[in-house]
Amino acid sequence: MMKRDEKLQKQQDKEEIVCENCIKLEERKKQLEMRVFNRVVESQKEIKATILEGKQAFDVTPQTPFNKQKYLENIRRKALSLTKSIELLQKIDDSKEEKFLDEYKVLFEKMKEDND
Predict the structure, then answer these.
(1) Strands 8-10 and 17-19, sheet pairing
(2) What is the number of domains present in the chain?
(3) Which contacts (CB < 8 Å, 24+ apart) does range 51-58 have?
(4) Residue 1 and residue 8: Cα distance in Å, rounded?
(5) Are residues 15 and 54 in the same domain?
(6) Residue 31: which domain range?
(7) Whether 15 and 36 share a structural domain
(8) CA–CA separation, 107 vs 104, rounded Å?
(9) d(CA 97, CA 45)
(10) Full-prediction pTM beyond 0.85?
(11) Using CB atoms within 10 A of its CB, is residue 19 exposed (0-12), middle (13-18) or buried (19+)?
(12) Among 18, 34, 49, 76, which has the highest number of CB atoms less than 10 A from its own CB?
């Protein structure tokens, strides 16, 4: 198994005989473990920094309270516009008069502005 030429070394803690290649392999293994460990630590730092940035961005944006009255008023206004629109469409269908078409165009423009 071991060649006679290989240098042998006794470990200090244990009285085992270890070849030089085994020692080199152990050192290389420790180096690789340290690299992996350093990469893990760096990635954890990056993740923490990203989380902190997200928290700060969230904290900076003010949370506007929900205005129920404004929301309900907006719904009422849209409902009235839609009701009037239906009535105008029925009048246009029944009478075919130009004045109802003009009213509908004005109402339609008003509804477009409200949605924007």
Answers:
(1) antiparallel
(2) 2
(3) none
(4) 13
(5) yes
(6) 8-60
(7) yes
(8) 5
(9) 72
(10) no
(11) middle
(12) 18
